[in-house]
């Protein structure tokens, strides 16, 4: 028969108190906690910096792999109007506040025109990216790469994460 039988189950606080074995004084444990927090913060900052540099080990699953790196570089080296889409839409929203029906109608026409432009550009970019990846990496699946490239192309270059590894190309 087990020696645990015959007595009540300990309360959670009591069980957790038994598990905590602290030979440190309260002041020393506060210092240890501060040191652990500082180390964790430094580790987070280093990991974030590695992520922004595009180091493969620091990338999340959605950004890992040679095909995704290729797509990022392809999108980052092309100049596109779509990266300014959000700024343009904010400007258009400002125009809709102006109490002139002509200005408001013009703003709405501009907004829908911009949305159609971005959708067409994204569709064409998606097809191009998938085709290039299929040629360059025949063993890699292309599922999701088109949308990945399109979403990256709609972000301002300075706000892209991981940060662009290549600059815009100057084609002549």
Q: Largest beta sheet, briefly?
A: none
Radius of gyration: 27 Å
The topology string of helices and strands comes to HHHHHH
Helical element count? 6
Distance between the terminal alpha carbons, to the nearest Å?
87 Å
Q: What structural category arises from helix and sheet content?
A: mainly alpha
> What share of residues is helical?
55-70%
pLDDT < 50 runs, ≥5 residues: none
**Mean pLDDT rating:** 88
The multimeric state of the shown protein is: single chain
How many structural domains in the coordinates? 2
Q: Name the beta content range.
A: under 5%
The coarse silhouette is elongated
Count of beta strands: 0
Report what the structure shows:
This protein is mostly helical and 172 residues long. It has two domains: 24-53; 62-159, no CATH class. It has six helices and no strands. The chain has helices at residues 12-19, 26-53, 66-77, 85-97, 101-136, 145-153. The longest helix has 36 residues, at 101-136. The N and C termini lie far apart (87 Å). The model has no long low-confidence stretch (mean pLDDT 88).
Secondary structure elements and pairings:
Elements: H1 12-19, H2 26-53, H3 66-77, H4 85-97, H5 101-136, H6 145-153
Helix pairs in contact: 3-6, 4-5, 5-6
């Amino acid at each position: 028969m087990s020696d645990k039988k015959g007595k009540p189950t300990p309360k959670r606080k009591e069980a957790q108190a038994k598990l905590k074995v602290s030979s440190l004084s309260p002041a020393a444990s506060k210092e240890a906690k501060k040191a652990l927090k500082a180390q964790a913060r430094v580790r987070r900052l280093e990991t974030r910096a590695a992520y922004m540099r595009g180091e493969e080990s620091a990338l999340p699953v959605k950004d890992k792999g040679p095909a995704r790196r290729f797509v990022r570089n392809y999108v980052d080296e092309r100049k596109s109007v779509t990266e300014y889409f959000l700024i343009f839409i904010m400007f258009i929203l400002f125009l809709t506040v102006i109490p002139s029906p002509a200005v408001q109608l013009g703003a709405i026409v501009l907004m829908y025109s911009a949305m159609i432009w971005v959708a067409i550009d994204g569709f064409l970019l998606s097809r191009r990216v998938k085709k290039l990846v299929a040629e360059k990496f025949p063993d890699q699946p292309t599922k999701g790469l088109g949308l990945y490239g399109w979403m990256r192309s709609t972000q301002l270059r300075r706000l892209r994460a991981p940060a662009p590894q290549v600059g815009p190309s100057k084609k002549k």
